[in-house]
């Protein structure tokens, strides 16, 4: 029988990406379930200083509350000219959690006078797996690029319309899902976690 794996994200588009990458990895014996399939539990504040700490906060609380192995992602955009911010504050950069349009507008305004040569940035994802009684694993993935001067494309979510991946002539929001997953911070972090997920499936 398959091991249930709670994929703990309240961001529907991020959740879809996580499920897609898990699917593509073809890990036999894992059945991903969402937060809507387990009883409600209180959310803990994502107040860690790093993506890895926050990913662990989320995965630990999901595993503790449900007794089910839990996978969580914490991610964001680290902009060179802003000393790595918005970073762990990416989801609420303009003040209101998850307001992508306001976050993008504020980021653009902050970078108005930053020349093209200094608009470097990277998406970072930390993916954490916490198994009750079975340990914790965290893997990080990075996707380097730069911040555009105006939004382009309708795909993805968050800062994707403003992110030009290194070596690409299309913004992240102009890529197909498969193209984004192959290159993205989240795709890389989750693929690095695949051995731990396979071990979990085999243990059961
Ligand atoms: O914590 P959960 O419930 O998973 O959902 P969230 O949206 O709050 O997720 P985070 O706390 O990890 O914040 C991540 C933010 O960083 C940005 N971000 C992360 N990955 C991104 C991606 O692939 N493309 C564009 N923006 C991204 C986007 O603004 C997200 O809201
Ligand atoms: Mg969050």
UniProtKB/TrEMBL annotation:
Residues at the active site: 74
Residues given in the record as Mg(2+) binding sites: 74
Cofactor(s) essential for the protein: Mg(2+)
Keyword Magnesium carried by entry: yes
Domain of life assignment: Bacteria
EC number: 3.6.1.66
Cofactor binding remark: Binds 1 Mg(2+) ion per subunit.
Keywords on record: Hydrolase, Magnesium, Metal-binding, Nucleotide metabolism, Nucleotide-binding
Pfam families given in the database record: Ham1p_like (PF01725)
Metal-binding as UniProt keyword: yes
Positions of substrate binding: 9-14, 75, 157-160, 180, 185-186
Any one Gene Ontology molecular-function term assigned to this protein's record: ITP diphosphatase activity
Catalytic activity annotation: XTP + H2O = XMP + diphosphate + H(+); dITP + H2O = dIMP + diphosphate + H(+); ITP + H2O = IMP + diphosphate + H(+)
UniProt subunit comment: Homodimer.
Family that this chain belongs to: Belongs to the HAM1 NTPase family.
HAMAP family in the record: Non_canon_purine_NTPase (MF_01405)
Known role: Pyrophosphatase that catalyzes the hydrolysis of nucleoside triphosphates to their monophosphate derivatives, with a high preference for the non-canonical purine nucleotides XTP (xanthosine triphosphate), dITP (deoxyinosine triphosphate) and ITP. Seems to function as a house-cleaning enzyme that removes non-canonical purine nucleotides from the nucleotide pool, thus preventing their incorporation into DNA/RNA and avoiding chromosomal lesions.
Name of the protein in its database record: dITP/XTP pyrophosphatase
